[in-house]
Amino acid sequence: MATEKRTIFLACVTLTVYALSGLLQQGKFLYPFPLNEFIFFGISAYIAIRNFKQQKLLYSLLILAAISFVACRSYNWNLILSSESMERLDHGYTTDVFYVLFYGILSTLTFQLAKNNSHRVHLPTYFSSILLILVGSIFALDSICILGILLQVKTFYNKENTTTTPFVYLYSFLAFLLATKELTLFLA
After folding, report:
1. Is 115 a residue whose pLDDT tops 90?
2. Which pLDDT does position 119 carry in this prediction?
3. 36-51 and 56-71 are packed helices; what angle lies between their axes, rounded to 10 degrees?
4. Which of 101, 116, 128, 152 has its CA 20 to 30 A from that of 58?
5. Is 98 left (phi over 0), alpha (psi -120 to 50) or beta?
6. Calpha distance 184→114 (Å, rounded)
7. 3-state secondary structure string, the chain?
């Protein structure tokens, strides 16, 4: 089993066990979704550091996407900003810009992965995924963004173990994180 696959599997199992322990203790099935961005950043950074020498541009884009994912949630800014600054941040467009930047970088990364994978980019699938992510971003529906992310995986997925395999795992993990957030909000 690849290190990336094992790392992501352990993260998914840990989050699920945490949610199950909440079900047993409090009677509520709750994933710790406010930590999703930091978890994704940590795992992305770990995978990027392990594989940075192979493809510097792709892993740099991954790190930028992960940083944008952390910065797109206003509750994450609460860790470093004062109350007054948080109020200005809530009334501004900073988090929205980072949200669009996150999905823009992710889409650019997908295009680069498909192009580097030496097979024809499925443009209809790629543009459909961007459209789904755009609609999901505009209406703040993570479930539609999940579909877009999964379509993006289809764009560059290759059955053989290639240099894109860690990204397949990461995109799947991102879809898992977004799905657990939706599930938690649905059950709450």
Report:
1. no
2. 58
3. 170
4. 128
5. alpha
6. 33
7. CCHHHHHHHHHHHHHHHHHHHHHHHHCCCCCCHHHHHHHHHHHHHHHHHHHCCCCHHHHHHHHHHHHHHHHCCHHHHCCCCCHHHHHHHHHCCHHHHHHHHHHHHHHHHHHHHHHHCCCCCCHHHHHHHHHHHHHHHHCCCHHHHHHHHHHHHHHHCCCCCCCCHHHHHHHHHHHHHHHHHHHHHHHC
**What values do phi and psi take at 158, rounded to 5?**
-135, 135
Cα end-to-end distance, the chain, whole Å: 35
CB 136 within 8 A of CB 148: yes
Least confident of 38-52, 99-113, 127-141, 167-181: 127-141
Structure tokens at 108: 């650019």
Structure-block tokens of residue 109: 């990364």
